[in-house]
Amino acid sequence: MSRLPTAPLLTRSEASASVLPPLLVAAERVAAAVAQGVHGRRRSGPGEAFWQFRRYADGDTPGAIDWRRSAKSDPLYVREYEWEAAQTVWLHCDLSPSMDYASSRNLPSKKLRAMELTLALASLLVRGGERIALAGVDTRPGQGRAALTRMALALERGEGGSPWTLPAARHARLVIIGDLLDPLEDLRGGLRRLVSQGIRGHFLQVLDPAEETLPFAGRIRFDGLEGEAPVLANRAEDLRGRYQRRLKAHRDSLASLARRAGWDFSLHHTDQPPRTALLALHQALSSPSVNQTIGQTTGQARERATPSKQGRSDKP
Question: What is the Cα–Cα distance from 314 to 249, expressed in whole angstroms?
């Protein structure tokens, strides 16, 4: 007969549960939904666990042929094994002030969505046995639930750092999640350092839909969130075409940088469900190579409409 927890033990258990970041709970719900559509990290490579048979092809050695399976039909078949080396995946979540922006009360801020995606991806990676670490915060990657909880607590506390300098690690990859509106020269220089270390990875740009369309009209004051001087537009709609062209040019340049470096680039808007972006990230990390591109106010109102790191020459 099992015994019920004593009052002190129950109190301690409830206290421990309350420490679990609510953001982690939400992220794991997203991860659980995506996990139903993926199949772990199974892929061909060195290992001992059988994965699949495939037809013999030019370049395969005779020793790789499975003669028992091949005897059952005319074609020759090769036995493939599951890749078993755990990756080290560094995750960077942009926590800068511009990420606090949300154009509507019905939408999450860019920061909240980026944190959710970071933790949901970390949860999927942990389930697959990978090592995870928060770039700029952790000094050593970890595995399992403890590493995931540690990452969640660090993000809740607002801990972050530069993603551009990472310890050398075998099988290392990096995922950078943020609005990616920094000057292109900064992004190019950081990416060059990572590539020189042999680190491959993925950029995920997270934007509010208003930052994409600039749907404002009339006299608007645009206030930045990182100390930039405010911009007063008498007719915000007159800025729309030029703004959208600059944003597109910035994104195209970033995607081109990523492609030349063998990285991925994809885009996510905060009015979209996070599952699609998460699935694309997980599939990219599950691939042996990363080289595919995934991816109103009126009158005299004052609106903090486009706070994203304004005032820099390379930014839209």
Answer: 10
Is residue 290 classed as helix, strand or coil in its secondary structure?
A: coil
**CA triple 300-301-305, angle to 5 deg:** 130
Tokens 């993603």, residue located: 163
User: What is the pLDDT confidence band of residue 151, given thresholds at 50, 70 and 90?
Assistant: very high
**Burial grade of 198 (CB within 10 A; 0-12, 13-18, 19 or more):** exposed
Three-state SS for 18-63 is HHCCHHHHHHHHHHHHHHCCCCCCCCECCCCCEEEEEECCCCCCHH
pTM for the whole thing?
A: 0.72
Mean pLDDT of the chain: 79
294 neighbors 266 (Cβ within 8 angstroms): yes
What pLDDT digit, counting tens, does each position of 243-258 carry? 999 999 999 999 999 9
Eight-class DSSP state of 7:
H
Question: Token digits for 225?
Answer: 């969130």
Distance CA 141, CA 87 (A): 10
Q: Angle 100-104-105 (CA atoms, 0-180°, nearest 5)? A: 85
Alpha-carbon distance of 126 to 115, in angstroms, equals: 16
Structure tokens at 43: 């892929």
80 phi, psi to nearest 5 deg? -105, 150
Residue-wise pLDDT for 13-52, tens only, equals 344 344 456 788 888 888 887 876 554 444 444 444 555 6
The angle subtended at Cα 24 by Cα 20 and Cα 29, nearest 5°, is: 125
Strand, helix or coil for residue 253: helix
Q: What is the pLDDT of residue 170?
A: 60
Rounded distance between C-alpha atoms, residue 46 and residue 81, angstroms:
6
Classify residue 8 by its DSSP letter. H
